[in-house]
Design goal:
about 180 residues; 5-stranded antiparallel sheet; two-stranded antiparallel sheet; 7 strands
Length: about 180
């Protein structure tokens, strides 16, 4: 194995680069967590970037200036949503994740901040986690200058689509832990 050192710098430490193939430890396949409390923080960490890619891909060039940008996803809560309690009772494997996202959207020359409230209902399958249903509500941020919208089914929305893509990547071992 041959080692190369970058030239010393006052700004950054030297970087060591190996000129051989990666060790088996480096290429070991990552596994997607099966426990929802371990899975969710990783999902929420990556969700804004996945959602922004979904949003950009679904827009035309003319719409890019007014598209929302997902800034961050908040911590998850796992309390069951009463609206879907009957579905949960019929499927003991169904798990619910509640979280919020902060989004910004250009309206004219101003940026408007939105807070989205999301409920993902997911279930483990033989191929990994799958979304069964998704609900979303929208509100203003930080103060409610307009009322929060009623829950709407959002399984085809950008957040649910982003979560589906993340689950796919997680199951493929492509998500860092």
């Amino acid at each position: 194995m041959m080692w190369f050192l970058s030239p010393p710098s006052l700004m950054a430490p030297a970087i060591v680069v190996a000129a051989s193939s990666p060790s088996p430890v480096m290429i070991a396949r990552r596994t997607c967590p099966t426990d929802i409390t371990q899975l969710t923080p990783q999902l929420l960490r990556d969700l804004p970037s996945y959602a922004n890619r979904v949003i950009v891909r679904s827009r035309s060039v003319e719409q890019l200036n007014s598209m929302p940008i997902v800034v961050l996803a908040g911590q998850a809560e796992y309390a069951p949503l009463p609206v879907v309690a009957e579905k949960s009772a019929s499927d003991p494997n169904l798990r619910q994740i509640f979280f919020t996202t902060l989004e910004r959207q250009r309206v004219g020359k101003q940026l408007r901040a939105l807070q989205q409230y999301h409920w993902l209902l997911i279930t483990p399958t033989s191929t990994g986690w799958q979304i069964v249903l998704s609900y979303t509500r929208t509100g203003a941020y930080p103060q409610a200058s307009w009322p929060v919208t009623p829950p709407r089914e959002s399984s085809q929305g950008p957040i649910a689509q982003a979560a589906k893509l993340w689950f796919r990547d997680c199951h493929a071992g492509a998500v860092r832990s």
